[in-house]
Design goal:
Largest sheet of chain A: 6 strands, antiparallel
Distance between the termini of chain B: 79 Å
Shape of chain A: flat
CATH class of the largest domain in chain B: Mainly Alpha
Number of domains of chain B: 2
Radius of gyration of chain B: 27 Å
Number of helices of chain A: 19
Order of helices and strands of chain A: HHHHHHHHHHHHHHHHHHEEEEEEEEEEEH
Distance between the termini of chain A: 46 Å
Structural class of chain B: mainly alpha
Helix content of chain B: over 70%
Order of helices and strands of chain B: HHHHHHHHH
CATH topology of the largest domain in chain B: Serine Threonine Protein Phosphatase 5, Tetratricopeptide repeat
Largest interface: A-B, 61 and 48 residues
Largest sheet of chain B: none
Number of helices of chain B: 9
Number of strands of chain B: 0
Helix content of chain A: 55-70%
Oligomer: heterodimer
Number of domains of chain A: 4
CATH superfamily of the largest domain in chain B: Tetratricopeptide repeat domain
């Protein structure tokens, strides 16, 4: 069966490469008759990839350890739910998932009204770029990253899934990221195709929903990764500026910039070349993120290590950069409209785009610094958290302020109401100065909280002053998601600097006071389940009270997995919109906790509330195509 | 509003070049896949099979290679690594020692020999190797951590343990596991 699955991937690769070659010939001769064949090539490739994926899933579910991938990521006792998620737990499976998601994105796009309205020349060129990209993935999947490697002497049982991956956050975090990455292939290929065919800005309308949808998936993937880090790694935080975390954040900055510049071109024809570059840059950075995670160039907790795909991915990234520059150069400069003036809403959007790109550049440089500094340093070191916090957090705060003021400026210049933006800016400055004089440190946290408060007030004023705003989907999509970002800024600004942690060894019956709470270690429960996936569960019960009143019971655990030597720590929390109490047990000496670590995380849940808003509200802007499609299959 | 396309993909010289580049890229992808199948995949299959048989599967091939060139440092190190992964500590120590005869400043070999010594409960020798690592790389947080742990638990030297664990804590990346572990060990250290 696996031979057939591998053959299916090979045929999918052939369909993609031959389709790409056919598209190239059609474009070269200025013909369009073979367009239906290109679409059939895509459908065939997707069908074959789906067959191969089904075979891999079947192998996982039947625990067929003759398949190396199944033996590496599952074992006979792994629950079915986690067995399914093992599909994307490893390097080869996750690349197959990404390839399949990209193929499906292409096939779905080909059935939309927006695709049907494109000129045939643009469609032909779209398939040239898309099928070439898909072919590249399939070359990796049939070569160095083949998920269908069979073992000559299968082990009696598999190695099992890493305990860190057995968490709902980690189950959905990778597929959401990969769906986001895959979705950005459509706008990038469309941008290249439309520029080369001379169709102008029609691609932006066609790519609109794909940009928004992919952005939402990517954002959800990143934020869920943060939540997983908080709930599973047990260090008390959600973002450690780890190279792999950064790798997914870098394309997010470019994608967010694209969401905003695309709006400017759709409405006013502004920044056409920038949009082409940003659409391609987002996809290139997604590929670069994959390179960082899979090449072994950076050390990280959740990097895959070098699986032989680092070189091809880097070559692919460099090729894509060169291609983007070449295609952008074909657009005559005289067509570019002038930049908007600073004192207008488009001008402030351009400022926020620059801030986003600056943030992306800082994170990119910080992430690859150990690689770059190898050129002149004997023992290169990565950028530390302090570097990122010092450089990025002021930029994020400034971004929140610009985002708050922009809606009060007109699209064609000047503030719509001078009193409101001036008042909001004044309020932000006043709150920051008052906080600073009150002795609250760090000042950056005060500036962040003030920015979030002012952003919330701004949305409330817009709701009150703009007629029909509360019933407008577009209003909630844009201002609601901005409000969500402000809520995240509020959560980060408070939970980051004002988090308090304490570690103390405790025996049953002992207690301590910390952060205004009393923590009493009641007892330790231990359950042995030999022969099960988890062979031992140890759970400490910590009663928490405040001013003599019970608040709840924390139950941090240590789980011993059958295939892993070291017990795994499970976090326990007492959630709240104010303080969230967070506990982990590092080690045990009999019944004694050595030590118990507790953290008081103020307002941390606002980060997750804002995250949900940011991920879901932009989807309200997704809309169906309107207007008739060209019955002949194009607008030409 | 859809603008009528120029339908002149060939008009701009760069457009022709781009199509030619794309055609070359597609051909290169096809050729890469073909070459990978015929030339590289055999090697990869052998590696996969070796992996499935365990770390010692590569030893015969490496020994044969070493016989042809007894001073091949890379092969010696690969052998040492294979024995270490196979938990054959004595042979691993021997080959790391051989590698260090060729290059006494090989940090990796020194560090791994220290670990091998530790696994064999030869604690003073392990400390000696970790100190040799520190002589070459004073900011090696892991070496300080291991000396600290050995001093604390095996050599019963709390002064040395404190000194090295503090240095490990100062050098370890913040927020990472090593820093947390070192902090915990320092807190539990009896004066």
């Amino acid at each position: 069966m696996y031979l057939a699955a591998h053959l299916a991937l090979l045929l999918a690769m052939l369909a993609s490469l031959l389709g790409g070659a056919l598209a190239c010939m059609e474009a070269w001769h200025g013909q369009r008759q073979k367009l239906p064949w290109l679409e059939r090539c895509q459908d065939a490739a997707v069908f074959l990839m789906a067959c191969a994926s089904t075979a891999l899933l079947g192998g996982l579910l039947s625990r067929d350890f003759s398949l190396a991938y199944v033996a590496d990521y599952t074992d006979s006792l792994l629950p079915v739910f986690y067995t399914v998620t093992a599909f994307w737990a490893g390097q080869a499976g996750s690349l197959l998932f990404w390839g399949l998601a990209m193929g499906l994105a292409g096939a779905i796009f080909a059935r939309t009204g927006r695709y049907k309205r494109l000129a045939p020349a643009t469609k032909t060129l779209f398939w040239l770029f898309f099928l070439a990209l898909q072919g590249f993935f399939l070359v990796l999947l049939t070569g160095p990253n083949n998920p269908f490697v069979s073992l000559a002497s299968p082990p009696p049982d598999g190695k099992g899934l890493n305990p860190l991956l057995r968490n709902v956050g980690m189950i959905f975090h990778p597929p959401l990221l990969f769906i986001g990455y895959a979705g950005f292939a459509v706008p990038a290929c469309l941008a290249l195709a439309a520029t080369l065919s001379g169709e102008g800005r029609a691609w932006l309308e066609a790519a609109r929903n794909w940009i928004l949808g992919s952005w939402a998936f990517l954002t959800a993937g990143i934020l869920l990764g943060g939540w997983w880090s908080y709930m599973e790694l047990g260090w008390g935080g959600y973002w450690a500026w780890d190279p792999v975390e950064n790798a997914s954040l870098i394309p997010w900055f470019a994608a967010t910039a694209l969401v905003h510049t695309a709006l400017l071109e759709r409405r006013f024809g502004l920044l056409p070349r920038t949009n082409v570059c940003l659409a391609c840059l987002t996809l290139i950075l997604c590929l670069f993120a994959t390179y960082l995670v899979r090449s072994g160039v950076v050390e990280s907790l959740h990097a895959f290590g070098d699986g032989g795909v680092g070189g091809p991915l880097l070559a692919g990234v460099l090729f894509a950069v060169a291609l983007t520059v070449l295609v952008a150069a074909t657009r005559p400069r005289r067509d570019d409209p002038p930049l908007p003036e600073l004192g207008s809403r488009p001008g402030l959007i351009v400022v926020s785009v620059w801030l986003l790109l600056a943030l992306g550049l800082v994170v990119l440089l910080g992430t690859i610094w150990p690689v770059l500094s190898q050129l002149w340093e004997v023992s290169p070191k990565g950028a530390e958290q302090g570097f990122y916090n010092t450089v990025c957090l002021p930029l994020f705060t400034l971004l929140t302020v610009v985002m708050t003021l922009a809606p009060w400026f007109g699209w064609t210049g000047g503030p719509k109401r001078r009193d409101v933006p001036a008042g909001l800016a004044g309020l932000w400055l006043a709150l920051t100065i008052i906080g600073a004089f009150q002795g609250i440190r760090p000042i950056l946290a005060v500036a962040g909280v003030s920015a979030a408060v002012v952003a919330g007030l701004s949305v409330a004023l817009l709701l009150a002053l703009v007629p029909g705003a509360s019933r407008s989907r577009r209003f909630w999509a844009s201002h609601g998601s901005h409000l969500g970002l402000a809520v995240i800024v509020l959560g980060v600004a408070v939970s980051g600097p004002f988090q308090r942690s304490h570690e103390q060894a405790l025996s049953p019956g002992e207690s301590f006071e910390f952060g205004g709470y009393r923590f009493t270690y009641q007892d330790l429960g231990a359950t042995d389940t030999p022969g099960q996936e988890i062979t031992r569960t140890e759970e400490a019960r910590i009663a928490v009270s405040r001013d003599g009143k019970p608040v709840g019971v924390l139950a941090p655990q240590r789980l011993t997995y059958r295939n892993y030597d070291h017990p795994h720590t499970e976090v326990s929390t007492l959630p709240g919109l104010g303080d969230e109490l967070y506990a982990t047990v590092h080690d045990l000496d009999g019944q004694r906790l050595t030590p118990l670590k507790v953290s008081v995380n103020p307002m941390v849940n606002w980060v997750w509330i804002g995250s949900i808003m940011v991920c879901l509200l932009p989807l309200m802007a997704i809309r169906r195509a309107v207007g008739p499609t060209n019955p002949k299959g194009g607008a030409a | 509003m859809t603008r009528k396309p120029t339908n002149a993909v060939l008009d701009h010289p760069l457009r022709k070049l781009i199509l030619a580049v794309m055609a070359t890229a597609l051909a290169a992808l096809f050729l890469t896949s073909f070459l990978d199948r015929t030339m590289v995949q055999g090697t990869r299959t052998a590696r996969t099979q070796a992996k499935s048989k365990g770390p010692m599967a590569v030893v015969p091939e490496l020994m044969a290679k070493l016989q042809q060139n007894p001073n091949d440092e890379e092969t010696i190190l690969k052998l040492a690594d294979a024995f270490m992964r196979g938990k054959d500590w004595q042979r691993a120590e021997h080959f790391y020692g051989e590698a260090l005869k060729i290059d006494p400043k090989n940090l990796g070999a020194l560090f791994h020999r220290a670990i091998v010594n530790l696994e064999q409960a030869r604690f003073p020798e392990a400390v000696g190797d970790f100190k040799a690592v520190l002589a070459l790389k004073p900011d090696a947080a892991e070496a300080h951590y291991y000396i600290g742990m050995l001093s604390k638990y095996e050599l019963k030297d709390p002064q040395s343990a404190k000194e090295h664990l503090e240095k490990a804590l100062a050098l370890a990346p913040k927020g990472k596991e090593l820093a947390a572990e070192t902090q915990k060990e320092l807190e539990n250290l009896q004066p």
